[in-house]
Amino acid sequence: MVAQLRSSAAFATMLGASFSTFSVMSGHVSLYRAVQVMGLDRLENPLDTNAKVCSISTSPDQPRTVELLDTWCDSAKVPNEADKAAVEAQSFFSGCGVILDDRPWDARYDMSKCTWRWVKHFFSKIDRRRRRTGIGLHKRWGDMSTDPDPNDPITPQRSTPIPVAADLLRKIRSCGIQDELNVYMEWHNDTILSELGEPYQVIDSGDSVDDLIDLASNRLMILDLSSWTVLAHQIADGGITVVPDVDQFNINWYDNGVNHVLRWHELLSIPCPELVTLLNS
What we know:
This protein is of the alpha/beta class.
């Protein structure tokens, strides 16, 4: 659900506006409401009836508006270019007291590069993390175990393969890193997890937000490709994030600002002293 807020949050940031939206219930089994968790469900309160209401789809140049958002996000690290895009976009919405983002359902993984600070700010308000050490392994299993997509060409990367995880863990242990292993897996399967080859504890509280924050508090995370894991990476406070070798969905793993990112093959080949230095830096 938070992945569907990224482009709207980026748009509000670009315009220098506050961001509010309504509470849509997640289809996840825990039935959480992302905007309520993040304190963004202000539209449940009365709006200023005198405010001019505008919408993105009816802006004077809707395609250009969306193009400017992409330009601003891509050039967020180049202030002059970002400022030019923002000024032009602001001209389309002069005098608007409320701007409705009335585009279709939209999950923007690529917007993480210009919204990770925003995401981290809001999640810091609900911080319930309990650990400062640990290895967090995400095994996507709840939806993939009941309705896997046979046409999904990246299924192995959407849910960390156990043999891959076992290889990564063996390398980590060979470097003397002995943090406890925490596996984040809905409806976990002991038979599958036994192939990891070492003790572990399963984290599956039924509260996906609480589990997300717990995952992000591990100092080393082994993640796969999903909006949930991208969020865990974005709100982490430092350490190492290990991700698949492939690039999909334009995920910007390198933009959370603090975590070192290693691909599977990089972790398996990195010298132990360098790995330990990264983990402790």
